[in-house]
């Protein structure tokens, strides 16, 4: 099996790329030591998408290493590990290196049995350790959705919005239900964008239809 590295200038950026690749290769196991799969804090991903991953939090050194050791028996063949350079700092470069080296040794052993993808932040000690352990640089491909998967996400979001509408006044509900039909006119464009921000595209679709109506009224007024 192979040890891959996804490199980036910031922890947030590289963890974002790691999640994108994990979603592409799902189902997969994701070891989150950076709290990057928390949908409340890392809002670039929708909850329905993250459900395709089995996520294990490991946000301390005392949880991280035992978690990695336990993965040798997991049924998953693909494992993703977020950045973990922030888990501790003993204010001693030699001691830090020794502990990180021990963690990398465990990860390297795991990579003999599984495909392991690591998020590695540039200009950190982990770049040096990645080179030492023969990590292969992995270039993340452009993420996309199939039409069917994009429709599932779209329908799920529209259902949430419909539930909100149930609490509106009767006169508002009629207008609101008509408004929620507008995004379906642009489903092809939403799918073509292959975006993780489907909710934003829904709002843009609604706004576009409103703008079209405004332009039509202005045109009729100026006749």
Notes on the protein architecture:
This protein is α/β, with parallel strands linked by helices and 223 residues long. The protein folds into two domains: 3-137, 3-Layer(aba) Sandwich (Rossmann fold), CATH 3.40.50.300; 147-221, no CATH class. It is built from nine helices and six strands; from the N terminus they run βαβαβαβαβαβαααα. The chain has helices spanning 11-25, 47-50, 61-70, 93-110, 125-132, 147-165, 170-179, 187-193, 198-221; strands at 3-8, 28-32, 53-57, 78-81, 115-121, 136-137. Strands 3-2-4-5-1-6 form a six-stranded parallel β-sheet, sandwiched between helices. α4 links the parallel β4 (78-81) and β5 (115-121). α3 runs parallel beside α4, α4 (93-110) crosses α5 and α6 (147-165) packs across α8 (187-193). The termini are far apart. The model is unreliable at 143-148 (pLDDT under 50).
Biggest sheet, spatial arrangement of strands:
3-2-4-5-1-6
How would you describe the oligomerization state of the chains in this entry? single chain
- H-E string: EHEHEHEHEHEHHHH
Helix share of residues? 40-55%
Cα shape? elongated
Beta strand count: 6
Q: How widely separated are the two ends?
A: 70 Å
Number of domains: 2
Structural class: alpha/beta
Report the portion of residues in β strands: 5-15%
Label the CATH architecture of the largest domain: 3-Layer(aba) Sandwich
Task: Report the CATH topology name of the largest domain.
Answer: Rossmann fold
> Main beta sheet: strand number and arrangement?
6 strands, parallel
Q: Please work out how many helical segments DSSP would assign.
A: 9
**Low-pLDDT ranges:** 143-148
How would you name the CATH homologous superfamily of the largest domain? P-loop containing nucleotide triphosphate hydrolases
CATH class of the largest domain: Alpha Beta
